[in-house]
Fold this sequence. Notes:
The protein is 49% helix and 14% strand. By secondary structure, it is of the alpha+beta class. It is elongated. The N terminus and C terminus are likely disordered.
Amino acid sequence: MRFKDNNYKVDMSTLNLHEGHRQRLTKRLQDSRFAEAEDYNVLEYMLTMVVSRRDTNPLGHLLIEEFGSLANVLEATPDQLLKVKGVTPRIANFLTSIPLIFRNYKISKLEPKTYITCPEDVFNYLGQCIYHLPSEEFYIICLDNGNKTIGHRIVAFGGNSQVSINMQDAVQYAVKLKAKKVVLLHNHPAGSCDPSDEDKATTKKFFMSFNVSGILLYDHIIVDSAENYYSFAKEGYISRYSKECENMFKANIIEIK
C-alpha cells in the first residue's frame, strides 16, 4: 500500500496484528463484563476509542506506572496527563471527561420528587453523583413545602480546593422554581468533608440571602472522595444562623421604634 503523495510504505502486517489484538481484547473484556479486568487492560480498551492504527497496550501500562491506578489516571488533570510520553491533547481530554460523563449518567437516573429529610437523603440523591469527582462542584437542590425535590442546578465549579460561587444566580434559580427550602451541596476532592472557615462563611451568607427571599436554607452538605459527608444542620449551624437572623430582625424593629 502506497500513499499518493509520498513513497512511505505502510506495514499492513503490523496494522493487521494490532487490529487483531484489539478485537481479542474487546471480546475478552466484554465477555467477562470487565469483571476482574486489570487496570491497564481497561485503559488500553478505552484508548482504542481515540487512538487509531496504534498499539495502545504500552501506553496503558505507562499510564498505570505513572499514576498508580485507573482511578488516578481518570482523576489526573490534562496537564499531568500530557507529561506522559504518547499522550496527546485528544487522549487527555477524553480521559478527563470520563468522570464527568459518569456524573451525568448518575444524575440522569435521579428520581424526580424525591423526599429529602436528612443528610443521608441528600447524599443518596445527589451526593453519590459527585463525591468521586477530581474537581470541586457546588449545587443547589430546591424543595417544595413537603420536602420533595423540584429541581437542582450546579452553580459553581472549580479546582480541587475551591470554587467561585455566584450567590445571586443560586437565589434567583430557587425563586424561579418557587422553592420553599433549599439544600446546598458540594464536594471536597482533596481532604476530608470537614468544612473550612470559608465554607462556614459562605453558608451563613447563603442563609441570609435565602432568608430575605422567604426561602429556608434547610442544610448544606459537604461530601468527600471517601463517601463521607458533613451536615451543617446536624452540627447546629443552621439553627445558629436562624437565631442570628431573628436577633437581627428584632434589633431592627427596636431601632425603627
